[in-house]
Design brief:
mainly alpha, protein-cysteine S-palmitoyltransferase activity, EC 2.3.1.225, 2 domains, two-stranded antiparallel sheet
């Protein structure tokens, strides 16, 4: 046990190396920009003030969002999704998977679940011993189930999910602004040092290196930021982008998409004044999500779903069909009625033609 515990502590310590590296680079960039560029290189007082004001604004928002992304604890499923003690003991003693699924189906009857495994089974984490809510996944690095898990990011040493996804997006946005601002304002002095218009001083190395580092990070962050903006607009996580969630009707990569505006609001909240601030404003509790396939109508009676015999023999109550599905069913019924009506007319017309022909032959 002791070596395993020591190994786990070493892994946790090593996981902070990328965060320490980023922190050191940011601290050096602050010194290089403020001291070496603005104080020692730039001669114009007005230019110094403007650069320093905008630099500290972008620097402050970048650091704020970065710290919030790192230290926001990942949200976990509530006790509602844990198996009762008796059911848990039965599940652990049961060896056959089909009977284990019966236990899970029974426990999931009153839970707000719409997604399943690829085989149609209840999503259950044996490690955490919890029924997984929709969009919840187990993170092996954090060793826990994370609500609306997107991915585990080594640069923040944290799992990006429901509790800090907005902070992560803002962190990418403000780090991009920070790098763009540095690259744009340093460019002219980079050219002057490169062409020897300015005398060689200690600031030359810092200014040249600062431009290269800012441009390099800007390119890498831009691609990542653009990708996550696309994911927000589609209301998908990184995991769902590679493996579509499975619903009652099958897998659907757009199952949680509610339209571009509602998708944005679900992550950033309905109050636009807080969108650019790293404060938590995301909608929901992370365990239930509206879908475009199922709209809950409290006035309709719930529909009882009978799972396949190989999976369970227990009734599972799920939400009613959406309006679009009801409309499709009614349209199909109307189409069937029209076809039956036309078929009856054809039969009657055929019978009348037969009678007419027989009468003419008799005459």
């Amino acid at each position: 046990m002791a070596p395993t515990h020591v190994l786990r502590c070493c892994q946790r310590g090593l996981a902070w190396i990328p965060v320490i590296f980023i922190s050191l680079v940011v601290c050096w960039s602050y010194y290089a920009y403020v001291v070496e560029l603005c104080i020692l290189t730039i001669r114009s007082i007005g230019e110094k003030i403007i650069y320093l004001v905008f630099f500290h604004l972008s620097f402050g928002m970048f650091v704020w969002s970065y710290v919030k992304t790192i230290f926001s604890k990942p949200a976990n499923p509530s006790n509602e999704f844990c198996l009762p003690k008796a059911e848990k003991e039965r599940y652990e003693k049961e060896e056959k998977p089909e009977f284990q699924q019966e236990i899970l189906w029974r426990a999931a009857t009153n839970l707000p679940l719409y997604t399943r495994t690829g085989t149609g089974a209840v999503r259950y984490c044996d490690r955490c011993q919890v029924i997984k809510p929709d969009r919840c996944h187990h993170c092996s690095a954090c060793d826990m189930c994370v609500l609306k898990m997107d991915h585990h990011c080594p640069w923040v040493n944290n799992c990006v999910g429901f509790s800090n996804y907005k902070f992560f997006i803002l962190f990418l946005a403000y780090s991009l602004v920070y790098c763009l601002f540095i690259a744009a304002t340093v460019l002219q002095y980079f050219i002057k040092f490169w062409t020897n218009e300015l005398e060689d001083t200690r600031a030359k190395f810092h200014v040249l290196f600062l431009f290269f580092v800012a441009a390099m990070f800007c390119i890498s962050i831009l691609s990542l930021f653009s990708y996550h903006l696309w994911l927000v607009g589609k209301n998908r996580s990184t995991i769902e982008a590679f493996r579509a969630p499975v619903f009652r009707t099958g897998s659907d990569k757009n199952g949680f998409s509610l339209g571009f505006r509602k998708n944005i609001v679900q992550v950033f909240g309905d109050q636009k004044k807080y969108w650019l601030l790293p404060v938590f404003t995301s909608q929901g509790d992370g365990m239930t999500f509206p879908t475009r396939l199922v709209n809950i109508d409290p006035e309709q009676a719930p529909v009882t779903l009978y799972p396949e015999p190989s999976k369970s023999a227990t009734d599972v109550t799920v939400s009613p069909l959406s309006e679009s599905q009801n409309r499709l069913l009614s349209n199909e019924k109307q189409a069937n009625n029209v076809e039956d009506y036309l078929a009856d007319d054809n039969i009657k017309s055929a019978e009348s033609e037969t009678i007419t022909v027989s009468m003419e032959s008799e005459s």
